[in-house]
Automatic annotation (TrEMBL):
Species for this entry: Apatococcus fuscideae
Top-rank taxon, per record: Eukaryota
GO biological process: double-strand break repair via synthesis-dependent strand annealing; reciprocal meiotic recombination
UniProt xrefs under PROSITE patterns: HELICASE_ATP_BIND_1
Pfam entry (one): SNF2-rel_dom
Pro residues bias locations: 94-111
Annotated Helicase ATP-binding domain residues: 154-302
Disordered: region residues: 84-112
Annotated protein name in UniProt: Helicase ATP-binding domain-containing protein
Molecular functions per Gene Ontology: ATP binding; DNA translocase activity
One cellular component term from this protein's GO annotations in UniProt: nucleus
Classification via InterPro entries: Helicase_ATP-bd, P-loop_NTPase, SNF2-like_sf, SNF2_N, SNF2_RAD54_helicase_repair
């Protein structure tokens, strides 16, 4: 009897669906496939939480306080953080400024690196590498900076201009170059061509190293030098940036440009005092003197 009722009910539903489909009045409604799992009465959702443990606290308010308590991280072995009081915080009395921190005991003093000293009667200050860089320099890097400074400042007698720093990979050539450019930007003397020795410095490197040079300058000089990296810029932005760097009221001190970008705009750097110091990274790309890239060596420098 029950089977006949189910069959008749199923047949009526089937006929009703066919009739609704033919009359374009079919409506789709979702019903739970497993009522006990998918359907949940509204009253059950609004019931207060009750722990299944037999000895647990029955008070829902006490449980809410524990669950809503804000947890704070306490380091291993440390004491628990004190609870904040709800009373307003009183202003603290003004105190005298703390004295400057003295150097930590046991730290070796930084040996200064003096690159040049004026002769008696000339006056002026000696050219010295900044102490914030000296403490990181190794002996071979000190020799390299001294060598480059003497070549750039014209203190060595040889037929040529500039120099080549041919240290192996990983010996800190980038730090030596940054130390040299920062020294030339902040030091000078009439006997060396003016004060400062350099005002505009150009770093030419492969495209993949433009951002690396910019980050290294910020890292070692702590944001004191004003760099202008030309990386991932449109041609209009590159043209405007180069014009800004070469203008008399230039704000930037160091232009970081790739060999490809320089090859396109090489003619713009032929003016007087367009560059006081030129640093070429991966300089083996200049071995062919017939290429347009090699024009970087023909720029007028101080």
């Amino acid at each position: 009897m029950e089977d006949e009722n189910l069959e008749s009910q199923s047949q009526r539903c089937k006929d009703a669906n066919i009739q609704a489909l033919l009359s374009n009045k079919l409506e789709v409604t979702r019903q739970a496939f497993i009522p006990r799992l998918l359907s949940c009465p509204e009253q059950a959702l609004k019931k207060p939480f009750k722990s299944p443990h037999p000895t647990a606290i029955n008070s829902s308010v006490a449980l809410k306080r524990k669950l809503l308590a804000r947890r704070k991280f306490v380091p291993w072995g440390g004491a628990a953080l004190p609870r904040h009081s709800l009373s307003p915080k009183l202003p603290e009395p003004e105190s005298a400024p703390a004295p400057p921190q003295s150097p930590q005991p046991g730290e070796p003093p930084v040996e200064p690196l003096i690159l040049w000293e004026p002769e008696e009667g000339q006056g002026g200050k000696p050219v010295e590498v900044d102490a914030m860089l000296c403490k990181w320099l190794r002996p071979h890097q000190r020799e390299g900076i001294q060598f480059m400074f003497e070549c750039v400042a014209g203190l060595r007698q040889y037929e040529g201009q500039g120099c080549i720093l041919a240290d192996d990979m990983g010996l800190g050539k980038t730090l030596q170059g940054i130390s040299l450019l920062w020294t030339l930007l902040g030091n000078g003397h009439e006997a060396l061509g003016g004060d400062p020795i350099a005002k505009r410095i150009i770093i030419v490197c492969p495209t993949s190293l433009v951002s690396n040079w910019d980050s290294e300058c910020s890292k070692w000089l702590k944001g004191r030098v004003k760099t202008l990296p030309l990386c991932e810029s449109s041609r209009e932005d590159v043209t405007m940036s180069i014009a800004q760097f070469l203008s008399p009221r230039n704000y930037f001190q160091v232009l970081i440009v790739s060999y490809e970008t320089f090859r396109i705009h090489a003619d713009k750097f032929k003016g007087e005092r367009s560059c006081d110091l030129l640093i070429c990274d991966e300089a083996h790309r200049l071995k062919n003197d017939q290429t347009l890239t090699n024009k970087v060596k023909q720029m007028r420098r101080k």
